Known about the structure:
- It comes from Flammeovirga aprica JL-4.
- It is built from 19 helices and ten strands.
- The chain is mostly helical and 520 residues long.
- It has a domain at 5-266 and 499-510: Serine Threonine Protein Phosphatase 5, Tetratricopeptide repeat (Alpha Horseshoe).
- The strands form five sheets. It has a two-stranded antiparallel sheet. The chain has a two-stranded antiparallel sheet with strand order 3-7.
- Helix 1 runs antiparallel to helix 4 (92-113) and helix 4 runs antiparallel to helix 5.
Amino acid sequence: xxxxxxxxxxxxLELSPNDKVTEDNFxxxxxxAYKALIGIYEKLRHDHTNIYIPLALTADAMSDDLYxxxxxxxxxxxxxxxxxxRGDPANINGEEIWxxxxxxxxxxxxxxxxxxxxxxxxxxxxxxxxxxxxxxFLRAHFYFELARFFENVPLTLKSEDHLSWREYTQASPEVxxxxxxxxxxxxxxxxxxxxxxxxxxxxxxAKAELLKMFMFYxxxxxxxxxxxxxxxxFTHQDxxxxxxxxxxxxxxxxxxxxxxxxxxxxxxxxxxxxxxSFGNINSNTxxxxxxxxxxxxxxxxxxxxxxxxxxxxxFGLPTHELMDLYSDQDKxxxxxxxxxxxxxxxxxxxxxxxSFTNTGAFGYKYTTHxxxxxxxxxxxxxxQNYHYIRFSDILLIGAELQLTSDISKATDxxxxxxxxxxxxxxxxxxxxxxxxxxxxxxxMEGHRYWDILRRGFQFAQQELDVVNYExxxxxxxxxxxxxxVPSDFEKQFDAGKRGFWPIPQSExxxxxxxxxxxxx
Length: 520
């Protein structure tokens, strides 16, 4: 069973180790079930062990929105290799994500295996349903994460010992997605719509991720439906009904200010449908797995301190292509990135060092915001929640789903997002309009690469290939422009690898029936 985690009712799920227990002396009552459930939730915010793997930065590294950056060419080289489509089976970043997901799946399977043995009191029926629904949904979430990164992964629905895995083979994408869809649909009626502790997920979050999965699966595999275990289908019309339900009945909506989304006002707000919570607890140090948001630490400007920002590691640098897309009228621009020029002109600021693939700007959504840090132990202790699925994302999914059946509604959904950004209405939207709006609205939040893959390999090469890069140095102040050589900024999408990562060599060594992904 490993470590069980306790919780308290606060603005995030507080996770702290308790006594080690075994399956034989656990899973007795509702309290045990809850502790086991929080053990699964713990893996949502697990973004570093031996290497740093925050979900948004890891996905965006492969996109055209940012460069990995960091302190030099060898700094987090595994992520740089994956981002440039040159990863190999020994890549530690891929191994850590694989490991994280299967630990969470093992915990989910164990709780679900034991569920019928747990005694719930007559007044605990709501908890009984909620906990089971959340365990099903979390299992589905982690399988979806594996499916998008690796595609061909083993599927198990029961608790396994370390020897059982040797007999497994990888499931086909159709079988894997059928199980994920079934888990999500089974979870939704069991989960609460509202009224649970902040940090736990509602049925609306499950619907939101099911919609994101529908968009990815049907786009990437050129299908018109998601498969289910019983042979039936989750269809395009089912997706439309679900997104309309979410838009009109969930209680979620857009915050008035885009800027507020990434402040404390945005945490657990109506804007956020699927939230992953973090903390800045005093006891967190380099010696343990911190509760802080590692994305924030990674993205902060190197060597810089001011009233606004603390010292970070200079990862996740926005590309010029992305920055050039924003008009000066777009209110999202200043909340998405901040320039080195602005940092150096801040009278309270001092000490800015260059990053590898320096572009003269830094991401500003998730970063080392000074007010988010633990004042006594700043490093790796930033309590900024990750807003994995926002309501604006749902509106834009709704627009894409409605595009061929109700273009006026599709246009309205896009314009609602644009209007908050201070932009004028579009008359009739196109698919390209929706994709552009998704890029501007969700930039550097971990969605762009998956959106690109949905439109095929030719589109991916068109968007992702960077060849004959033209440097943009700044003669007045080098930190305000590109630093490096063109080859540092160049990469080419490898269609032969189909957009996926290699199966970790450590897994191939342990499981003789596994086959490596094509292209590796």
